[in-house]
Amino acid sequence: MKALLCTRLGGPDDLSIETLPDPVPGPGEALVRVSVAALNFFDTLIIAGRYQVKPELPFSPGGEACGVVEALGPGAEGVRVGDRVIVHAKYGACRERVTVPVRLLTPVPDGVSDEQAAGLTITYGTSLHALRNRAKVRPGEWLAVLGASGGVGLAAVE
């Protein structure tokens, strides 16, 4: 399978496309064939070694993706082979196939495209966390969104 790899810390030009063996799901994991992987600002930080999560080299960037479950490891429950899912990961989604714990998968409803689903969790999840858990914004309150040109800011405006 093809994978976008960070083999040394740096910028996007330092990434390479490599061929790796297909992964095999372990206990409680699913093998997902990735149709769309999303990239976010933090991916530029993680490949430069400037993010709080510092994966061991080599690694694939990409914290979220959409794809189809191809196989299940022993004891994996909650999804079935053939299910279309969102993959929630800290990194690793920029591959043709990825193994992840099934608890990090969310079913994709009909009518939601792979592209929409793949780019949903990080920007909208970050915005929701900031507004609900940090700012504790309540109905009727005003909110100024600074930086509404980025993904998290746009999600906050929505």
Concise synopsis of the structure shown:
The chain is of the alpha+beta class. The chain is built from four helices and seven strands.
Overview of the molecule:
The chain is α+β, with helices and mostly antiparallel strands and 158 residues long. It has 2 domains: 2-119, Medium-chain alcohol dehydrogenases, catalytic domain (Quinone Oxidoreductase, Chain A, domain 1); 120-158, no CATH class. It has helices at 41-47, 114-118, 121-134, 151-157; strands spanning 2-5, 16-19, 29-38, 64-72, 84-88, 97-101, 105-107. The strands form 2 sheets. A 5-stranded antiparallel β-sheet has the order 6-3-4-5-7. The protein has a two-stranded antiparallel ribbon with strand order 1-2. α3 crosses α4. The longest helix is centred in the C-terminal third of the chain and has 14 residues, at 121-134. It is globular.
